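Notes taken during the Thursday session

The instructor put the following on the board and asked us to keep it in front of us for the whole hour. The protein is DUF485 domain-containing protein. We were told not to look anything up and to reason only from what is written here. First, the residues (104 in total):
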Amino acid sequence: MKKELVEQIKANPDYQTLVKARSGFAIKLSIAMLVVYFTFILTIAFNPAALGAPLSADSVTTIGIPIGMAVIVFAFILTGIYTKRANSEFDDLNNKIKNSIKEN
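Then, after some discussion, the predicted structure tokens were revealed:
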């Protein structure tokens, strides 16, 4: 890619909006995932009895198993949320940037 083209893209206000929106959104989702994950891990480390309790009196499955699965499902949900926004808002901005560069 030519240096002039790179500079033209970087100077585009839509590109700056895209970078800020995408980065901010990714950081928020990352923080949400880290909070959920480390809460789970720290609970295992400092209060293992809380997650080691059986689901019911006659169950061999502990409450930690479905909570661990919920952490994994939460990660999939966050991925879906990011993908949905990337395929709509971010792609629209990206196409707008491409079209404005082609016109110049």
